[in-house]
Amino acid sequence: MKESEIIEKLREIISPYVEDKSLLENVSGETDLLNDLKINSAHLVDIILDAEEVFDIEIDDEAAEEMLTVKEAVRIISERVNN
Amino acid sequence: MLVGNDLVCLKTAGYPAKYREGRFMRKIFTEAETEFILSSDDSRSMLWAFWSIKESACKIHQKISGRRRFSPKSMVIDPESVSQDGRFRLFAETSAGGIPVHSLTTLTNHYIATFGVVNPDCLPNVIHQIISVTHQENPSENIRAKLRTDLAMKWPEKAKDIIITRSVMNIPRLEGMDSDLSLSHHGNFASYALLTNNPYEYILV
Q1: What is the pLDDT of residues B4-63, one digit of tens each?
Q2: Selected residue of B10, B23, B70, B140 to mutate for chain A interface (largest A Cβ count, 10 A)
Q3: Which of A23, A45, B169, B186 is deepest in the core (most CB within 10 A)?
Q4: Least confident of A45-54, B68-77, B158-167, B178-187
Q5: Which residues of B touch A65 (CB under 8 A)?
Q6: CB A49 to CB B70 under 8 A?
Q7: What band does B203 get if pLDDT is binned at 50, 70 and 90?
Q8: Long-range residue pairs from B63-66, CB within 8 A, at least 24 positions apart, any chain
Q9: Which long-range contacts (CB under 8 A, 24 or more apart) does A40-44 make?
Q10: Which of A40, A52, A64 lies nearest to residue B186, judging by beta carbons?
């Protein structure tokens, strides 16, 4: 799966958990899910669970610890999708 | 001298069915924690209490390790350490990557708020304030304003020299005061936990 497809799907997964939708307009690799998108940390668990379903992958606890930025999330997902 | 805090607005958090299901619980809680939560008289409150205890411990761990991680599962609560003082206060001990964190959680019908410290002797020295958020566009400003007001009232001579800043890891701290600070916001509420060597020093000024 291309990185651009992963980013697009990830944006759809993240969107319901972002209260201020205008923050989604400038999402880049460096975007921090908690600090920049103001996502509540409890919703990080929702995002990880949703990503597991959408991409049909398993994100273990060690990988989940790293999923704080869009860049890291894309890396973790693409490593598992393309394996 | 370290403090970490967390707050859960119960209306915002809700208690969707999926939160009671295995996948969600397994991402956050150990088997022993899950058993404790699900066997509690009020599983919803206990789930969010345990969550806020882990988040508070996580903030302390980040301050010590200098690393940002989302690792609720590696903040391990000892269910045997959990004790309740009436319905509204809950004490617990957590191992935050090997660092012991002692926490006090306040449970209400509207929010659940926790603060934790490494040294249990410091628990009484923590000033913990919870407010309703009125400025929804900038909720963190609400709690900063509350903190500035409290400092000015309690410590009028020094308050003007105290500045609320953030470290490179986005951790709030006070410049100009020997203390540690932790802030939290969720839904309709925000809170601060301030640990000083002697909070009564300025409360009594």
Answers
A1: 999 999 999 988 777 777 888 999 999 999 999 999 999 999 999 999 999 999 999 999
A2: B70
A3: B186
A4: B158-167
A5: 69-71, 74
A6: no
A7: very low
A8: B63/B2, B63/B4, B63/B171, B63/B180, B64/B2, B64/B99, B65/B97, B66/B169
A9: A40/B12, A40/B186, A41/B55, A41/B70, A42/B8, A42/B13, A42/B51, A43/A17, A44/A68, A44/B70
A10: A40
Tokens of B4: 């970490």
CB-closest option in A40, A49, A65 to B69 = A65
Give the pLDDT confidence of B74-121 residue by residue, as tens digits. Answer: 999 999 999 988 778 999 999 998 999 999 999 999 999 999 999 999
Q: Give the other-Cβ count within 10 Å of A65's Cβ.
A: 17
Using DSSP, state whether B146 is helix, strand or coil.
Answer: helix
Q: How far is A36 from chain B (nearest CA, A)?
A: 11
To the nearest whole Å, the CA of A33 is away from the closest chain B CA by 11
Residues of A in contact with B72 (CB under 8 A): 45
Q: Compute CA distances B123 → B77, B91, B199, whole Å.
A: 17, 10, 11
**Total-model pTM:** 0.91
Q: What is the pLDDT of residues A18-61, one digit of tens each?
A: 988 899 888 888 899 998 998 988 899 999 999 999 999 999 99
CB contact under 8 A, B70 and A41: yes
User: How far apart are the CA of A65 and the nearest CA of chain B, in angstroms?
Assistant: 4
* Partner-chain contact A42 B13, CB within 8 Å: yes
Structure tokens at B99: 């660092």
